[in-house]
Amino acid sequence: MKGSIFQALESLVLQHRDMGYWNALLVKNAPKGRCYVSVNDYPDAELNALVADICEELELEQAVVISLFGRHLFSHLMQHYQVVVSRYQHFEALILNIHNVIHKEVNKLHQGANLPTMRCMMIEPGYIEMHYSSPRKLCILAEGLIYGAAEHFNMQINIEHPQCQHRGDAECTLNIYYKRLKSHDRS
Predict the structure, then answer these.
(1) 85, 44 in Cβ contact below 8 A?
(2) pTM of the model as a whole
(3) Cα 92 from Cα 144, distance rounded (Å)
(4) What CATH topology corresponds to 88-185?
């Protein structure tokens, strides 16, 4: 897992806890003196352990924490990699181009990034079907990222997840239903 993902988790933790809490998480779950550098690779097990401890502390299920992290991760990535996302003026264009354009750009910035495979197609206006596959099975993180993108573009969305690698399916299917929020609907 790239260090930029760990940095995003740190920034989320620091929004709700102090640096002492983050350092305690590192002492328990990372090698001594660990400092995450955005372009370096770190073991997935470290991220999983950090998330597990956060879940325990907050008394929340892992799926809830990972989804919330996905939402935060989108805004974190927008701050640090705006050039990649800023070319998309519409939610649909961003989602439809995740794999073929955005992931290619991510690979240019972070060679060797272990990214999921995503195939997206617009079924009809207001409905995109995404097929997601990854050995990491981070489909819930992908959902959170999509919700984060929807917030960025002022969209109301609902995601159905009828097929999931966690339930033994070969890939996940995410049915993304969306519509633009009216300006007074945004909270």
Answers:
(1) no
(2) 0.89
(3) 16
(4) H-NOX domain (3.90.1520)
In a structure prediction context, what are the per-residue pLDDT tens digits for the chain, which is 187 residues long? 889 899 999 999 999 999 999 999 999 999 999 999 988 889 999 999 999 999 999 899 999 999 999 999 999 988 877 777 788 889 999 999 887 766 666 666 656 667 788 999 999 999 999 999 999 999 999 999 999 999 999 999 999 999 999 999 999 999 999 999 886 555 5
What is the residue extent of each domain of the chain? Answer: 3-60, 88-185
Structure tokens at 176: 């993304």
CA-wise closest residue to 2 among 28, 45, 40, 34? 40
